[in-house]
Amino acid sequence: MFDVIRSKRYWLALLLVGAIIGIVSFALIGIRNSVKVKQIPVALVNEDKGTLSNKIESKLRKKFNGKDSKIKWVSPQKDGFNDQKYYGAFIIRSGFSKELQQQNESLKAQIISQKLTTLQKKEELPDSAKSQLLQAKFVTQKPVHPAQIKISINQGMNAQISQLLSQALPQIANALSSRISAQQQSVLSKNKINLSAKSWDLVSTPISVSTHESNKIEKNTVNGTAPMLLVALAWFSALIPSLILWREHTKRSASKFLNATTITSQLITGLVASILSATVGFLFVNVCFNLTIPNPINFIGLMSISIFVFYLIITCVLDWLGFAFYPLLLVVWFLASSVMSYAPEALDPLYRKGIYSWVPMRFSMQTLTNTLYFHNGSSTTMSSLLVLLIIGFVAAILMYSSGYLKHYLFTVSPHRKINN
């Protein structure tokens, strides 16, 4: 009855269950529970450089200067949106200070005009004030416009963050507008001034806020989650062929240690399988499921590279460690998919540096994100692609070295010890 409990396998099984529970908790609960949106880079652009706009810029920088602030103001850069330097931009448009100054001048003129007109009707207006009345009426007739603030959202970088900024940045601009409006209304109330509906609209909204989206997330891209799902498709497109081809090459090998010819065969067959998988994947996601893919050739090429690099990683693990460590690859994917669901700025440093920074899947997702949403080109494509190719090259070298080193470790070295 107690034989099972006394066996080592029983306790090893319990240990394995505990490890699995720990990993799943770490990935599912730990990551999600620690996600906090803060220090999201947003460009603060002052195109006006007037007195009022400079004051507003200074106040904004002070307000969002804390470490826990959701927004981190950064300086604008050339091609900053395409190169994914920031998730959005808060732009104080040229003429901002001038428009607000004209609003204040028009407000003062209306106060003067109404007061002097009242005195004129009572025939109590001094002759010296008549020119002042004419001047005030002339100022009130000049067209006055709201000051302009433009919000730009770099939507393709991350769907969740872009949605958050689409609400947060206009709220900041509207809060500025409301503050200026309250000041103007206070002045009008003290002077008991009545305004026309048009003038009142301007007092109610002294700042006009417009929102523009760059690198838009196209329709039929699963609400911006398409890159993540495509990486999953690429990973599992590599996971199954790598196991099948590894088993075939192992069976056909004359020795239990794979030689260079066998490894080369693994590379060639894996490359063919990767290109075929990428092509079939394109046909399914684009033709069958109507996923929007702007450039099919780029897409198939990037998917082929991603699948092939994943194939090399998986096959390298199998060549070195064997099928017993195959489940480890599922754990790696599980951890990677957990962190790739979020913007890196939202991750706790433990998860960002400990998982996100080194998993190869994120570089694949970067290239796929760019080909789907960044049609003007992004420098991050080449850098991510280069990292993927380096990872694949290292995996291929390790594959070639596996046969020789394992042969030396398990055959040559023990044989020398016996002879000695």
TrEMBL record:
<feature type="transmembrane region" description="Helical">
    <location>
        <begin position="385"/>
        <end position="405"/>
    </location>
</feature>
<dbReference type="Pfam" id="PF12698">
    <property type="entry name" value="ABC2_membrane_3"/>
</dbReference>
<feature type="transmembrane region" description="Helical">
    <location>
        <begin position="325"/>
        <end position="343"/>
    </location>
</feature>
<dbReference type="GO" id="GO:0140359">
    <property type="term" value="F:ABC-type transporter activity"/>
</dbReference>
<dbReference type="GO" id="GO:0016020">
    <property type="term" value="C:membrane"/>
</dbReference>
<feature type="transmembrane region" description="Helical">
    <location>
        <begin position="226"/>
        <end position="246"/>
    </location>
</feature>
<feature type="domain" description="ABC-2 type transporter transmembrane">
    <location>
        <begin position="10"/>
        <end position="399"/>
    </location>
</feature>
<keyword id="KW-0812">Transmembrane</keyword>
<feature type="transmembrane region" description="Helical">
    <location>
        <begin position="12"/>
        <end position="31"/>
    </location>
</feature>
<dbReference type="InterPro" id="IPR013525">
    <property type="entry name" value="ABC2_TM"/>
</dbReference>
<keyword id="KW-0614">Plasmid</keyword>
<keyword id="KW-1133">Transmembrane helix</keyword>
<feature type="transmembrane region" description="Helical">
    <location>
        <begin position="267"/>
        <end position="293"/>
    </location>
</feature>
<protein>
    <recommendedName>
        <fullName>ABC-2 type transporter transmembrane domain-containing protein</fullName>
    </recommendedName>
</protein>
<feature type="transmembrane region" description="Helical">
    <location>
        <begin position="299"/>
        <end position="318"/>
    </location>
</feature>
<keyword id="KW-0472">Membrane</keyword>
<dbReference type="InterPro" id="IPR051328">
    <property type="entry name" value="T7SS_ABC-Transporter"/>
</dbReference>
